[in-house]
Amino acid sequence: MKKQLSIILVVVFLLAGCTQQVQQQAPQTGSEENISKMTISFVVNDGKENILEKTVEVEKGTTALEALREATVVSGKQYEFGFFIESIAGVDAGQSHYWAIYVDGTYAEKGIDQIALDKDTQIKLVLEEIREF
């Protein structure tokens, strides 16, 4: 009888130890989720001054267009080559200007909907004059 009681106590202690270990590992899952989040900082300049400065948190793999839409109102048209921005935060580019995109200070050579975000990033959108070549 004492032997059976001893075995039961050992099993109970072992199970209690397993339960504590599972509880200690649970917070690590949350930290993995934070790794997939990124901070995207937007600066929108109308060619004279910054009209918007906003930071959003997005999931890794989000496009710059999706992140910009979380930061402010954006309108434009979807073409075969990508999304063409017509206005940001109520400021229309008009016929003689366009919204230039700078990612971490470098002029973007692709459309805003083709820029996949994989790290904390600063995106500056500047209203620039269209120049003939």
How is this fold's topology laid out?
Layout lengths: L1 H34 L1 E9 L4 E10 L4 H8 L2 E6 L2 E7 L2 E2 L4 E7 L2 E2 L13 E9 L4
Parallel strand pairs: 1-8
Antiparallel strand pairs: 1-2, 3-4, 4-5, 6-7, 6-8
Please characterize this protein's 3D structure.
With 133 residues, the chain is of the alpha+beta class. It folds into two domains: 1-35; 37-129, Ferric Hydroxamate Uptake Protein, Chain A, domain 1 (Beta Complex), CATH 2.170.130. Helix content is 32%, strand content 39%. It contains two helices and eight strands. The chain has helices at residues 2-35, 64-71; strands spanning 37-45, 50-59, 74-79, 82-88, 91-92, 97-103, 106-107, 121-129. A five-stranded mixed sheet has the order 2-1-8-6-7. Strands 3-4-5 form a three-stranded antiparallel sheet, covered by helices on one side. The chain is globular. The termini are far apart.
Pick out its properties.
Ferric Hydroxamate Uptake Protein, Chain A, domain 1, alpha+beta, 133 residues, single chain, 39% strand, 2 domains, globular, disordered N terminus, three-stranded antiparallel beta sheet, 32% helix
Structural class determined from secondary elements:
alpha+beta
- Sheet having the most strands: 5 strands, mixed
Classify the helix fraction into a percent range: 25-40%
Distance between the termini: 96 Å
Taken in chain order, the helices and strands follow as HEEHEEEEEE
Q: Shape, please?
A: globular
Tell me, rounded to a whole number, the average pLDDT.
Answer: 82
Task: Specify Rg, calculated over alpha carbons.
Answer: 26 Å
How many individual domains?
Answer: 2
What would CATH call the class of the largest domain? Mainly Beta
CATH architecture of the largest domain: Beta Complex
Low-confidence spans: 2-31
Number of DSSP E strands: 8
- What's the total helix number? 2
CATH topology tier name of the largest domain: Ferric Hydroxamate Uptake Protein, Chain A, domain 1
Proportion of residues in β-strands? 35-45%
Instruction: Strand order, main sheet: write it out.
Output: 2-1-8-6-7
